[in-house]
Design a protein that fits this description.
Layout: H1 3-31, H2 35-60, H3 64-94, H4 107-111
């Protein structure tokens, strides 16, 4: 096997790893009990899954320009997926979306101002 074949095989591994991450997160969207856990699943899927697919595509078709594009895409994807899932969870919290019954402590509730106090 040549080095190019090994690198392309590694690219396929990263692509399938990304697809697997997205599939597991999609299953989590249906199985997880509340908004907060679902937002975490979406953030994981978007961040790690898409970044793995981009890295795999880079390995399969490597060039200097593709490396630059992949680095920008991966950094942007990791940043925006984290911010997006956090925004979804915060919006749910501010709109009083209840956490699942398995959540024992809501420490953020203790620091929250009541609506009558401004």
């Amino acid at each position: 096997m040549e080095l190019i074949d090994i690198i392309e095989a590694l690219g396929l591994v990263f692509i399938f790893l990304g697809i697997g991450t997205i599939v597991v997160s999609a299953i989590g969207l249906f199985k997880l009990p509340d908004l907060y856990l679902r937002a975490s699943a979406v953030g994981t899927s978007a961040g790690l899954g898409v970044a793995s697919i981009v890295l795999g595509a880079l390995l399969m078709d490597f060039s200097g320009l593709n490396l630059l594009k992949a680095v920008i895409a991966i950094i942007a994807q990791l940043l925006t997926s984290a911010v997006g899932s956090m925004a979804i969870a915060r919006a749910g919290y501010l709109n009083n979306a209840l956490p699942a019954e398995i959540t024992h402590i809501d420490e953020l509730r203790l620091t929250r101002r009541s609506p009558d106090r401004s």
